[in-house]
Amino acid sequence: MTVILLAAGLSARMGTNKLLLPFRGQPLLLSAYSAALAASDRVIVVTGHDRKMVESLLPPGAETVFAPDYAEGQKYSTLRGIEAVEDDDFAILPGDLPLITEEDIRGTSLLLAHQTVARAFHGGIPGHPVAYRKENRERLLAFAGTMKEYLSLYDTGRYEGSIGCIADADTPERYRALCDGDLSILH
């Protein structure tokens, strides 16, 4: 399974590029990247805003795809990543989940043996990754609605993952709480 790691956004709610912020001694993005790389043979990092800075964080040889339409919203960056996947199942993973684990990614992908789409949850809260069997590729690329609307069309398999599936660093408050280890803000 290919992991599409989204690292293109504007970080508007944070006020600065959250993926570049320090988390446990490294840039925040590298936590999700490391988990994705441990769980998959192929990780595609979709870049956009601050492209050169984001790419400079990645190890040499990391596969990247630039989303020129990143400012239009996450759906467009997601589509650029999906376009780069040829013939493989794939999972969508935002880069701002520093506590995501290899097990969360693998567990979600295992459900694809029985489901067309699978999603990680934690405590009943929908999270990431969201995994798709490869036959979804062309349908997603042609779909006019949102990713949420697409998910509503399918009986989505549910994987009960770690708190890392929902622990995003979208705002300064959430980022500080994650850095401090205060996960109570997530519920």
What's the main sheet like?
7 strands, mixed
In percent terms, what proportion of residues is strand?
A: 15-25%
**What are the low-pLDDT stretches, counting only 5+ consecutive residues below 50?**
none
Shape: globular
- The count of DSSP E runs of length 2 or more, i.e. the number of strands, is 9
Taking all residues together, what is the mean pLDDT?
95
Spatial ordering of strands, largest sheet = 5-4-1-6-8-7-9
How much helix is in the residues? 25-40%
CATH class: Alpha Beta
- Based on CA atoms alone, the radius of gyration comes out at 15 Å
CATH architecture: Alpha-Beta Complex
Order of H and E elements: EEEHEHEHEHEEHHEH
Do you know the CATH topology? Spore Coat Polysaccharide Biosynthesis Protein SpsA, Chain A
Number of helices: 7
Q: What structural class results from the helix and strand content?
A: alpha/beta
The CATH superfamily is known as: Spore Coat Polysaccharide Biosynthesis Protein SpsA, Chain A
The first-to-last residue Cα distance is 30 Å
**How many structural domains does the protein architecture include?**
1
